[in-house]
Amino acid sequence: MGSTERTLDLIGVGVFMSSSIQKVPVADLRVGMYISALDRPWLETPFIMQGFHIESREDVDVVAEYCEYVYVDMARKAKASAHSSDVSDVLSPKGKIRYQNTSSIDAEHKRILGAFHSARRLTKTLLDDIRLGGAINTEHAKQMVNDCVQSVIRHPDALMWMAKIRNESEYTAEHCLNVCILAVAFGRQLGMPEEELHKLGLCGLLHDVGKMRIPSEVLNKPTRLSIDEMRIMMSHTIQGRNLLISTSGIYSGVIDVAYSHHERVDGKGYPRKLAGQGISVFSKIIAIVDAYDAMTADRCYQVAKTSTEALKIIYQERGTHFDEMLALKFLQTVGLYPPGSIVELHSGAVGIVVETNHKLRHLPKVLLVRDSEKNPLEKDIYIDLAQIESGELSKDHLIKQVWKDRSFGVTLRQYQERGLELRR
Ligand SMILES: [Fe+2]
Q: Which of 23, 41, 73 is the last residue of a domain?
């Protein structure tokens, strides 16, 4: 690396300073410019990626809130990518809907907990029925999706927290419900109308139903699959399509997503090797959400990645595996510190992220559960990290690192079971 270059790292995506980089006052920023560095540490800003294109006036305004000047890489012009979707088809004729939270986070946790547990049970029953050769219970599926959509519209953070609680032995059912929840939260962030959120949620819930027709010795094999076994596993897309075609009264987009959620925008996916615009927006969305949820789960053959590590992979595979624009939007939806993340602060204290701050995304509300020596607190303390901006909290409270569930003896399930007490 030359002397004029330095490596910066936020989510591990390296950016190199070179001669094409110029210092630009924020007032001179224009849509299409590529920001490669800021005038302050990235961790003190809400930007999830180190290095991004300015896509709109809104982006300029956000940068202006944090910086006086930035470093722009003049060699990296924004280009209309063949691998970026136009989502206008799935928005309402009036355009993007801007949802506001209509429930407090505590109230939403209490309200949705029962429905969430029954949705997990029902998803398992629904999949077991299919495995035994039965039909898909579409009424149950629609009811579960409706509960998810209503909760996510009121406040997405409660279900996003719950989706992080995992029971390894129930992977497939939990994964299907998680993909439903995350897809609806993603659709809400994209500004889709409620009707589309229902369709998208159903696509998420049922995307992998074909797996119920894969022999369990292949589906649950703890070691690497042989080429023949891989071929059988990949056939779950075709099996899913066939199953759903013969299901009456179901939204037809679900068939397409079950068939196409393993396609890649570069044409290297399966089963049809579709590329770019040949893949529907819903299939592209489910491909991203499916990959994210699968990567963040412990399996017999893989250790779970943290959300940050999984987002980094999605970022790196944008434009090849995943639709470029949708991948970037998904990073914004999940954010650096999604609800349910175990986070260590610079002080050494440990907490659980409860509520995202959409303006100051690096400063969520956190339930502190361990002191700086990692000992349990006598009483958990609910703090709003946004108070760092106003000076009411010290910078010691900035988040240093995200850890996986069960780190430092902190288990999400335990907090869920005893009810979330958000004492201030
Ligand atoms: Fe799949």
A: 73
The model's pTM is 0.84
Question: Which residue, 280, 208, 197, is CA-closest to 241?
Answer: 208
Specify the pLDDT at position 207.
96
Q: Are residues 327 and 355 in the same domain?
A: no
Residues 193 and 51 in one domain: no
Q: What single-letter amino acid sits at 394?
A: S
Name, in order, each residue with C-beta under 8 angstroms of 65's C-beta and a sequence gap of 6 or more: none
Evaluate whether residue 2 is within a structural domain: no
In whole angstroms, what is the distance from residue 206 CA to residue 369 CA? Answer: 37
Q: Of 280, 308, 278, which is closest to residue 296 (Cα–Cα)?
A: 308
Is the residue at 81 inside a domain? no
CA 207 to ligand 1 centroid distance, Å: 6
In a shared domain, residues 321 and 351 = no
Closest residue by Cα to residue 199 from 295, 117, 286, 137 = 286
Residue 63: CB atoms within 10 Å: 21
Residue 285 in this model has a pLDDT that exceeds 90: yes
Would you say residue 270 lies in a domain?
A: yes
Residue 241 parent element (H or E)? helix 236-245
Gap from CA of 2 to ligand 1 centroid (Å)? 44
Range of the domain at 392: 342-417
Give me the residues near ligand 1 (ion), CB cutoff below 5 Å. Answer: 208
- Residue 403 belongs to what H/E stretch? strand 399-403
**How many Cβ atoms from other residues are within 10 Å of residue 83's Cβ?**
22
Average pLDDT over the chain, rounded to an integer: 86
